[in-house]
Design goal:
β3, α2 and β4 form a beta-alpha-beta unit. By secondary structure, the chain is of the alpha/beta class.
């Protein structure tokens, strides 16, 4: 990949896991690059995939969808999945979308029974299931005449 590419991926091994580091922008144009990197990384047959998102500079809805798709691919391959290096901006997006439970699952393979959490959990002021929502505003009364 070249320096001007909007998303660069780097794959390596660390502590019994395969690590995929993302650098740049994760959006509709670059999401397929993430999926390709995840599929290639899972070929190593490690029990876990760590997706390092510390160097992401942008992530839109398609990027979030790609993160969920990467998690799904790991589950199909019975590999653990976790995000590491989540910066506050992406963390807020995941909290608002109530995705922190899905994207910070235990790092062990599916069905292993172990329950260790991610070493880099997302910290929100309240759990995603308890985010305050504004009270429903009454609809304006319109006359039918």
């Amino acid at each position: 990949m070249e320096d001007h590419d909007p998303l660069r991926t780097r794959t390596g091994d660390a502590q019994g896991a395969t690590s995929v580091a993302l650098e740049g922008e994760l959006d509709i144009a670059t999401a397929p690059l993430l999926i390709d990197a995840v599929v290639r990384a899972l070929a190593a047959r490690r029990p876990r995939l760590d997706l390092d998102v510390a160097a992401l500079t942008f992530c839109d809805a398609a990027g979030v969808h790609a993160l969920l798709q990467a998690r799904r691919i790991c589950r199909v391959h019975r590999a653990g999945f976790r995000l590491v290096g989540v910066r506050p901006g992406l963390g807020r997006i995941l909290v608002l979308l109530r995705l922190t439970d899905l994207l910070t699952l235990p790092a062990e393979p599916v069905g292993s029974g172990a329950g260790a959490g991610s070493p880099d959990p997302l910290h929100a002021s309240s759990p995603p299931s308890r985010l305050p929502f504004p009270a429903r505003l009454p609809l304006p009364k319109e006359s039918m005449s």
